[in-house]
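Two quick folds needed for the group meeting slides. Do the first one here.
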Amino acid sequence: MAAVLAMGEGATLSHRSAAALWGLLRREDGPIEVSVASRGGRAQRDGIRVHRPRSLARAGSFPAVTLRSNIPVTSVPRTLADLRGVVSPRLHRRAVRQAELAGFALGPSVSGDGTRSDLETDFLAFCRSHRLPLPEVDVQLGRWKVDFLWRRARLVVETDSYDYHRGSVSFEDDHARDLDLRRRGFAVRRYTGAQIRNHPALVVADLREILSRTDRSGGSSAS
């Protein structure tokens, strides 16, 4: 709040600082980012990075500025749009993903891919680059939510990373899920980021072998 007040009337928290306030990205050391429309507000101050967009007006049905914890801040759609020009594509995808998970509206200029991690996003890109049929993403199968589903082939793929699957509880949950899904007739595959990066031909061959069985047999629906 102090940084916004220091910049005078019409100033609002924005960009990476707004993303941190909304919980879309982690807080980082560095200047607080504030937007002031046009040439209004005060001069640059130490510890504050000032952005001067042409306008902070409402875009369609989405406001550009709102309040969070009584702090003037760019709305989630505006924050995501602003981030595109100042962070890496990977960080921008992460912010969009967090907004989706939190249930925030993304706005007309931003679209998500439905994934829950960078590795899931990488796997979708992997499927596209190797011209594999695209799966459904984050699908509920009974009591389990699976990363990827090829419904006709009854194939489930889980993309595993240390951050999301470490610890004994996660280990046991993963194996309980796999056992239950196999008993229900699903083929289950787990691929790590290292396998996708370092052994793509093996992963592609494994997937194509299972998917080709469906083409030969005619397949069946999943539920």
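Then this one, please, same format:
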Amino acid sequence: MSKKKILLVDDHPLVREWLTNLINQEQDLVVSGAAESSTQALQMIQQEAPHLAVIDITLGEDSGIDLIKEIKKLHPEVKLIVLSMHSESLYAERALRAGAGGYVIKKESTSRIIEAIHQVLSGNIFLSEGFDGTLPVNGGQDARSIKSLSDRELEVFQMLGKGYETRKIGELLNISMNTVQVYCGRIKEKLKLNNATELLREAIRWEEGRKR
């Protein structure tokens, strides 16, 4: 029986090692490569021709969603799954729109992750429980204005809403504090906010509305 080749794309070595051990236990699957960045992932797809790639949304300075779009453009035959720490439905919707066939949160059981891989390889859509593909309702900015944010801008916006300071956001996303501030400036411009106080207020309002 020929094995389906899986490419792992995650910027955390321990996650790549864990997934490699998990997937290689399956008789019909084999990890053919692992990448920590978008550039490495595209090179490995060219070299290894995997059947499926498992991609994290946050890849240091890169965006997993942007990588999905690039893979679908260059290698439409490769099936894609997002494996992410983000449980918000907005990320799942963006991933599917970009071309992913599945969205799995990292707290899922190992059996569910393997099930997701098999489902997507078979041409089906797989979503972690709780996702319905709709945008969350919020109490401040409407869905259309939030949707104008890039995937990384959305990450920063939600982290602000959860109370993280810019320095901590930088640490969590593996980017500099100056880069976080650049994203904050772009968010203010897109949401038509005048200053950091308004940005923080809208981020908190969005986060509170999303939980309702």
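Slide caption for protein two: The chain is about 50% helix and 15% strand.
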